[in-house]
Amino acid sequence: MKITDHIKQADQALFSFEIIPPVKGKSIQELYNNIDPLMEFKPPFIDVTTSREEFIYIEKKGGLLEKKLTRMRPGTLGICAAIQNKYDVDTVPHLLCGGFTQQETEYLLVDCQYLEIDNVMALRGDARKEEKRFESTDGGHKYAIDLVKQINDLNKGHYLHDVIEISCDVDFCIGVAGYPEKHEESPSMKTDLKRLKDKVEAGAHYVVTQMFFDNQKYFDFVKAARDIGITIPIIPGIKPIATKAHLQLLPKTFHLDIPQDLVDAVENCKTNKDVRQVGVEFCIEQCRELMAHDVPVLHFYSMGKSDNIYDIAKAIF
Ligand code: FAD
Question: Is the ipTM of this complex over 0.95?
Fold first, then answer.
């Protein structure tokens, strides 16, 4: 079922979360161990991220390092299929411009169709760790909007190359990313919002935001989006702080501000258990305020950890 239909049918905020495929060679069981407890809160959908290929260095005889390009966390569609089968829940694979040709994207979309996946997130992806800025893949897309257009074209029956006879409908519900604190590469919030509107006009059906800790930034973002005519659901992305290291890591990676009272409370913690508790309590309050503002969904970034999300969901649902 489409995310937008889940939202239409709901009479209160829904609970959903995002998971990251395991590093290749690891069992899927650990992922299931994280998902199992969260199913108590009946998520209508679970997102599965896609990672780019990155350069890794393998040590050879004599200490020489060999540079190899590899995707360390493959298996997005396989995991979607496994989860749908095991838990009877909709899954949302993330599709990236970076690392995929348009043809490969089409193949993935055909696989999604066979797997009865109704929703996809259309994302550009970040630059590789070694790149200064995002470089598009030969034969791939430059911006998420181009991916949205490709998916929307397929929804209208247009494949990249002529298909002789089309006998089945494809109708993906398309999610895109939004940034309450602006995408790092955008020159201004206004420009970033205009790009978001372009993605919506190209066919996106809903937005999921980057994580944020200050609800006012989300409220302002939604208002500014509505003011320029973006009417589709804007789902807040939420991440509870769980370690002291998050105070540096999250702003560095996701270009966001952490409110001073949360910074102070985390810095005053003596143990990681205390930090986890501070993160949970802050997040419960954050979610309660968001729910009071009628958000459609509370979408959690699990980043491989679910016990704190369980405690938060238990307190608010
Ligand atoms: P875009 O919408 O293409 O925007 C990228 C930048 O280009 C922005 O600054 C935008 O303003 C600018 N821009 C857009 N169009 C134009 C134009 N025509 N001309 C000039 N500038 C333009 N990354 C992963 O690798 N895997 C994931 O699974 C993943 N999941 C994510 C899920 C969510 C909910 C979010 C919020 C992010 C996720 N990301 C993921 C990170 C995402 O890939 C990065 O934030 C990336 O840098 C931008 O992706 P985008 O889809 O927002 O790009």
Answer: yes
